[in-house]
Amino acid sequence: MARSEVNVILYAVELDELHGWIGCGDDTRYQEAWKALMEDDDDDDEGGGWEPRALPVLERLLKRIVYEGKLYEGLEEDERYLVTQILIDLFDEFVDQDPLSEEMPLDRLQALVDQLPKGSDAHRLANYLTRGREVRGTRHLWEKGTAEDVGPYLGYITREEAGKLVEGLDAAMQRQRSRPSGLLKQLRSAADECARAELDLLSFIG
């Protein structure tokens, strides 16, 4: 059976709207977040499509995020996955988002990112948008295996980093002898728009 294609969509956001849930210690916001996790448009069953055995872990991790301000630190891979899914649901439900791109195939975009000069800002920052990035961190969410194995995840760069990505992509594309890829142009355009508007650039991969 053929695997479904993994795509990337870029959004202009205020990351502070997501960060505001982390360590807020607010009971009302916790209840709102839990309600969002339990609702799923694609599943009418109570529990939002989560496996029953995952619910106690999910509840513990959400409380850890809201009341302790902790995300990925000290967690094994299965719990790290759940933290990412919690953050995706918070992003979907509570963060204003302005889409800046159509769906872009991850495999093609990643191949182009891999060709950027190693060690450059363009290579480092573009990988945050394709391989994901821990919220309030620098570790990639997709480090080994395939993106399908990791599941849906988020990446981002800050508004300050967006300007550096534009400069790095411009330099890289100027050195190319062939016509620059349309996918890199979309990436560059989104980063430029965020830098000019003083917004953060977030990617959803799934």
Structural account:
The chain is of the alpha+beta class and 206 residues long. The protein contains nine helices and five strands; from the N terminus they run E-H-H-H-H-E-E-H-H-H-E-H-H-E. Strands 1, 2, 3, 4 and 5 form a five-stranded antiparallel sheet that branches.
Compile the SSE list and pairings.
Elements: E1 7-13, H1 15-19, H2 27-38, H3 55-68, H4 77-94, E2 98-99, E3 104-105, H5 106-114, H6 121-130, H7 147-150, E4 153-157, H8 159-175, H9 182-197, E5 200-205
Antiparallel strand pairs: 1-2, 1-3, 1-5, 4-5
Helix pairs in contact: 2-3, 3-4, 5-6, 6-8, 8-9
Proportion of strand residues? 5-15%
Q: Sum up the overall morphology in one term.
A: globular
- Structural class, by secondary structure, is alpha+beta
Total beta strand runs: 5
Mean pLDDT: 92
Q: Which stretches are poorly predicted, pLDDT < 50 over at least 5 residues? A: none
N→C terminal distance? 18 Å
Total number of helices: 9
Helices and strands, in order, run as EHHHHEEHHHEHHE
Binned, the helix content reads 40-55%
Q: How would you sum up the major sheet?
A: 5 strands, antiparallel
Global Rg: 18 Å
Can I get a quick summary?
This protein has 206 residues and is of the alpha+beta class.
List keywords for this structure.
206 residues; alpha+beta; five-stranded antiparallel sheet; 5 strands; 51% helix; 11% strand
